[in-house]
């Protein structure tokens, strides 16, 4: 069984530690733990590993956030991954920093990466791991906030957040979304 785990973010060193890139950070962390290396490929950097008979494919789209759907659609077709075996790791302004919440479907909430995926899949019914980045920004400054770096204090807490994302990902692949939500949603 194939699974596709997609971390959303923007490519380039200037975006490395921005709030919008927490999806990339989570996959980088998982790859480090599994001793994997991302390789550039079509529309994304990718790597994969086996987990109890399942093939887990990790991708970080290189299309920039607003065109993430192009990469997701290509890799789902290329790997023959059904929607229920897709998991999107996404930053979420509506959740406090450090909060992780798995959902089976939902709206884009104004997130351009999710809008692009919805347009490509013609559906909002796909699993996503919402990774809280908080909403500590003045009215009208949302774009500046998500593209700004995490604070020093937040950066100190990021490794623990990334560590907590791992059981969400692997339990999702092994036991399914309902069991994972029951075990780990806060």
Automatic annotation (TrEMBL):
Belongs to the PTH family. It is an enzyme of class 3 (hydrolase). Coiled coil: none annotated. SUPFAM superfamilies: Peptidyl-tRNA hydrolase-like. Keywords: Cytoplasm, Hydrolase, RNA-binding, tRNA-binding. Its EC number is 3.1.1.29. The record marks 10 as: Discriminates between blocked and unblocked aminoacyl-tRNA. It is found in: Cytoplasm. Monomer. The lineage of its organism: Bacteria, Pseudomonadati, Bacteroidota, Cytophagia, Cytophagales. The active site is at residue 20. This is Peptidyl-tRNA hydrolase. Pfam families: Pept_tRNA_hydro. Catalyzes the release of premature peptidyl moieties from peptidyl-tRNA molecules trapped in stalled 50S ribosomal subunits, and thus maintains levels of free tRNAs and 50S ribosomes. Hydrolyzes ribosome-free peptidyl-tRNAs (with 1 or more amino acids incorporated), which drop off the ribosome during protein synthesis, or as a result of ribosome stalling. It comes from Aquirufa aurantiipilula. The gene is pth. GO terms for molecular function: peptidyl-tRNA hydrolase activity. It catalyses: an N-acyl-L-alpha-aminoacyl-tRNA + H2O = an N-acyl-L-amino acid + a tRNA + H(+). The record marks 91 as: Stabilizes the basic form of H active site to accept a proton. TRNA binds at residues 15, 64, 66, 112. CDD domains: PTH.
